Amino acid sequence: MSLRWRGWSVFLACAFVCGSLPALAAETGTVYAKNVSTVQKWSDPATWGGSLPTAGDKVTIPSSARVVLDTDTASLAGLQIDGSLRFAERDVALTSKWVVVHGSLRIGSEKQPFQHRAVITLTGAESEQDIMDMGTKVLGVMGGTLDLHGRRTPGWTRLAATAAPGTTQIQVIGDSKWHAGDKIVIASSDYWRQHDDEATITSVSGSTLQLDRPLTYRHWGELQTYAGRTVDERAEVGLLTRNVVVQGDDSSTESAFGAQTMIMEGGTAHIEGVEFANVGQRKRLRRYPVHFHMDGDAAGSYLKRSSIHHSFNRCVTIHGTNALKIQGNVCYEHVGHGFFLEDGAETDNVITGNLGLGTKKIDNGLLPTDSSPATFWITNPDNIVRNNVAAGSDGFGFWYALPEHPTGLSNRPDIWPRRTPLGSFRGNVAHSNGDRGLNVDSGPKPNGQTESTYYSPRTNPSDGDSEKVQARFEDFTGYYNRDRAVWLRGENHVVSNGVFADNRAGATFASSESFLEDSLVVAETANKGMTEEWEEAGYNGRALPFFWEPDVQITGFEFYDGRVGVRNTTFVGFKTNPVRPAGALGYLAPDAFSIDPKNFAENVTFVDSTPVYLAPPEPGMDGDMAKVFVDRDGSVTGTAGKAVVVDNPFLLQSGCQERVAWTAWVCPSDYVSLYITSGDDDPQDIKPLTITRDDSVKQSLMGCCDDSTDAVTSIIPNHAYAVAFNQATPSEVRFVLWRGSGKWLQLSMPMSGSFSVKRWGYAIPSVGSGQALDAATESSYFYNSATSTLHLKIVAEDTDWEEIRIKKN
């Protein structure tokens, strides 16, 4: 507590002892309840020493006072509760510029939820006023207890039948237990998060809800079955109305300066069945609708079955707070990230059964990432995230945005989110998002900007060399996400039992040792989506993920980086049509980065699908030229062990067979990676770098980036190649035969003067002839002084990384 308020407490004690309370109230404009042992009614003038608080008064309930709010208050200038304030079981309203709870504020209880209507309205224009470091227009809890318990009403359900535009009646699953006068929102079920509909229920008959206005958009409400599995794209219906309300006043909407609820360190909150409306304060740090701020271990606190809507700044913020329960809530129409774990030190929180939608971007927001917001922004993986729905965002559905160490006030260098095991991610759904459904990448730096993030969980996160742990993302459903249902970056990830449909791509793993398993991926369902009048539609009038690029490829699983793979998975409906190409399996394109030629598919099933589509390589894109994956069991190509290879002559060999519809070839599977680095730090050394096979087939490499001094490509092993740099051979060169245990390569290049050839710092053998080099069974070299040519043989006897360095003396 600040010194100012401690001073008031001392002054108050003196006032009661000296009998000077009326003079104090008249002098300061503050009204105090009496310190008495009995419960007092707000409506009783005796509670206040003779007259009720009036408009503009500041009211304090001292620590030993117990007051029951049995009548509507005047519009107060402030209310401090050091004792207790309990709402009587009747319709009642509290209006104040701010409310601060050091004691307790109670509306109903866990055992007896409140049955009437209780409204707390926080008032005031935009202001810099700061009440105990909590700002203003605040319901603040500092060392006290907030108990708000509205009726236990189901917060959301799904449609039981498709609702067409123009209808005023919808069918929902089960008996909603909702009533006439309740306000609802129906989520989008296509690519536009804006295709949600708000309405008020006018009557209820079982599972049929009559609405006060016709719907603007179509909302899908049917289960679909593909290959014996269910695709559930039924739109969610969220209840916005609750009988206990915390709201901003009428000025909130115009100013974007709404009410806020803040639970500070030492505070406890039990919030259930509460509506938070016109809340949050736009672009103001720490001023959120519901905010647990540096509350430490909050195992006794929760937010359940509540609604937060029309927020100007996020929905639920968990900051420096652990073991909190966030369950069954509806978060609708909010600016910036929604369910927001702020720093990366927040762990053991249980986030289950929540519905978030209407996540809107904002430029120059509190974080740069608010311009591409996530409905669920998670900065530490050690949390329980289950059975939630992200049903419409301008950016992402779920974003695991992992910092290297917690940022902000938490500032914990001993916590390593990027190496922390995943608590639980199971049963979640993401749809109608402008980017990805699940994004595990792009963690924040201390300045709020993001960087590519490699999530590699370990048994001991503080020890990067400790045993690796698998992160399992289970039972995830992603549909109608404009980009991908899933994007992962890191290692040791598994996405299992997923259902992905109507996305631009089902899943892309910028990872290693990461796999899609036991899943269903559907290109396009019977739900065609709904387009805007001005946007270009696809074949048969269905919505397109990239309407601005209608011919973009539709892919089920995209290989990238590696080693990654897909197994025990069914793909349905991936067929090229007159508008765009499609393939169940493909590679991210265009791609300048390296890939693993040991990427694989195993036990995959194709229903009415083209198994593979590899987009033609783009010039200068080294990754495009290197695309290869292995068909382990023949379920893709018909022959176990074959490789699917991009249409690049440099990768084709005897025995390759063209698959025209795939724009690819099926070849013997012996492919390895060749990694070449110039030690002269000059990108022009390899722009281009030309490799010529012993049968004169050439390939040019440009490196991944403008400043890169290395290049990687897939290559057929057990062959000889000539290497020509853009300029003279650099003074230092590194060659790596990568992912090729038991294989060899011969490389030749111009070389003059004296030089050394070393493996891991030790000289390798020099042989006297080309024939001797051909016969070598270990990494060796032959120098032809007549032609000033170095011939190098790299032999990976029992390693996947055989590295040779050549350095001019």
Mean pLDDT, to the nearest integer, reads 95
Q: Quick one: overall form? A: elongated
* Distance, first to last CA: 71 Å
Residue share in helix: under 10%
Radius of gyration: 32 Å
**Structural classification:** mainly beta
Q: Point out poorly predicted stretches.
A: 1-28
Can you count the helices? 5
Main beta sheet: 33 strands, mixed
What fraction of residues sit in β-strands? 35-45%
The tally of strands reads: 71
Give a concise summary:
It contains 5 helices and 71 strands. The chain is mainly beta and 809 residues long.
Topology at a glance:
Blueprint: H1 3-18, H2 21-28, E1 30-32, E2 39-41, E3 58-61, E4 66-69, E5 75-76, E6 78-81, E7 84-87, E8 92-96, E9 99-101, E10 104-107, E11 118-122, E12 138-141, E13 145-149, E14 156-158, E15 169-171, E16 183-186, E17 197-205, E18 208-211, E19 223-226, E20 229-232, E21 236-239, E22 244-248, H3 252-255, E23 260-263, E24 268-272, E25 274-279, E26 290-297, E27 302-304, E28 307-311, E29 316-322, E30 325-327, E31 330-335, E32 339-341, E33 350-352, E34 355-360, E35 374-378, E36 384-386, E37 389-390, E38 396-400, E39 424-426, E40 429-431, E41 438-440, E42 443-444, E43 450-451, E44 471-474, E45 477-479, E46 484-491, E47 493-496, E48 499-501, E49 505-512, E50 514-517, E51 520-522, E52 554-559, E53 564-572, E54 582-587, E55 600-607, H4 622-625, E56 628-631, E57 642-646, E58 657-659, E59 664-667, E60 672-678, E61 689-693, E62 698-701, E63 710-715, E64 720-724, E65 732-738, E66 744-750, E67 755-759, E68 762-763, H5 770-775, E69 780-784, E70 789-795, E71 801-808
Parallel strand pairs: 1-3, 2-4, 3-6, 4-7, 5-8, 6-9, 7-10, 8-11, 9-12, 10-13, 11-22, 12-23, 13-24, 22-25, 23-26, 24-27, 25-28, 26-29, 27-30, 28-31, 29-32, 30-33, 31-34, 32-35, 33-36, 34-37, 35-38, 36-39, 37-40, 38-41, 39-44, 40-45, 41-46, 44-47, 45-48, 46-49, 47-50, 48-51, 49-52, 50-53, ...
Antiparallel strand pairs: 14-21, 15-18, 16-17, 16-21, 17-18, 19-20, 42-43, 56-57, 57-59, 58-59, 60-63, 60-65, 61-62, 61-64, 65-71, 66-70, 67-68, 67-71, 69-70
